[in-house]
Amino acid sequence: MTGSGPAAVIVLAAGEGTRMKSSTPKTLHQVCGRTMLGHSLMAAAELAPARLIVVVGHRADLVAAHARQQVPDAIIVVQEHLGGTGHAVRMVLESVGSIAGTVVVTYADTPLLRGQTLAGLVDERARTGAAAAILTARVPDPAGYGRILRGPSGSFAGIVEHADATPDQRAIDEVNSGMYCFDGDLLADAVKRVRTDNAQGEEYLTDAVSLLHADGHQVATVTCPDFEEIQGVNDLSQLAHATSVLNARLLGAAMRSGVWVHDPASTWIDVGVSLAAGARIGPGSQLEGATSVGPGATVGPGCLLRDTEVGAGATVLQSVCESAVIGEGAQVGPFAHLTQGTRIGPGERAVPATRPAGQ
């Protein structure tokens, strides 16, 4: 990213998420050991914004508390009435005042979004001097998304929602992600003029972009190279898909750094897991939390390790280890269960206790 960070990043986390059919707030569901809100906040924090603002609504106290655990100085704004994305941003500006400078708007249910992608959006608005920059993507199935319309020169011409699109417009595969970068002063003026004369009776941030374009301001676009990054999670099926995509991303990075992963399809790791070059991970292994595996160590097949330290050259086979420390060159398993606080010294062996015959 060029220059200093944006004046603010606004993370929208107010939705109820009824399609999750879960008592857990949607944005607090985990993807590879971190909540969706946590992933969104980490991506936003990579921009080093002067202010990181989180809009909460449903289960506001719980979501706000989690946001502050992740980013202690996050500013919380409560959207008492869930009146749409434009309404959420208007509530922010009414709460903290107009924000001069660059304002980024993103979502708490897009756990695959990278900070570098948001940085590219910020850079493009700064480079062009546009009133707003939109993150777009080309997707295999654009059904349900707003389509990006372009003029003869290829410049932004508007956004048409799927329900309002003509057959020709529905054939467009470039879609609006709903993530934006604005000039803060122009955003403050535009959101005040957003109307609610739509089927949902809500204020949409998309309309603020349209108003800026109609006013004659330039609207820039940045195409996200990986369409998976913009995918929102609205149900448990989509949550599982996001987990699979991020897991593959994490394993790919590990293998490129010299970790042997014998069967990526059956191996699962969390974002907090540390794998040293030369480590070997066997099939059917799940590594969770702050687990670390040293160089030359072998874990698996068939292991579950949670918050466990595995020393260099150690071997863990078909075992469950929870908050344990396994020394260098130690051997654990098969079929061992190391409970919290267990320490296996260097070179020691831990196997299940055997029972005398007949007992």
Descriptive overview:
Helices cover 25% and strands 26% of the residues. The protein is an alpha/beta fold. The protein has 2 domains: 8-230, Alpha-Beta Complex (Spore Coat Polysaccharide Biosynthesis Protein SpsA, Chain A); 257-350, Hexapeptide repeat proteins (UDP N-Acetylglucosamine Acyltransferase, domain 1, 3 Solenoid). The strands form 6 sheets. The protein has a 7-stranded mixed beta sheet with strand order 5-4-1-6-10-7-11, sandwiched between helices. A 6-stranded parallel beta sheet has the order 12-15-18-21-24-27, covered by helices on one side. Strand 4 (51-56), helix 2 (60-70) and strand 5 (75-78) form a beta-alpha-beta unit. Helix 1 (36-45) packs across helix 2 (60-70). The longest helix is centred in the last third of the chain and has 21 residues, at 236-256.
Topology:
Layout: E1 8-13, E2 30-31, E3 34-35, H1 36-45, E4 51-56, H2 60-70, E5 75-78, H3 85-96, E6 102-107, H4 115-128, E7 132-138, E8 147-150, E9 156-160, H5 167-170, E10 174-183, H6 184-192, H7 205-214, E11 219-223, H8 236-256, E12 260-261, E13 268-269, E14 274-275, E15 280-281, E16 286-288, E17 292-293, E18 298-299, E19 304-306, E20 309-310, E21 315-316, E22 320-322, E23 325-326, E24 331-332, E25 337-338, E26 343-344, E27 349-350
Parallel strand pairs: 1-4, 1-6, 4-5, 7-11, 12-15, 13-16, 14-17, 15-18, 16-19, 17-20, 18-21, 19-22, 20-23, 21-24, 22-25, 23-26, 24-27
Antiparallel strand pairs: 2-3, 6-10, 7-10, 8-9
Helix pairs in contact: 1-2, 3-7, 6-7
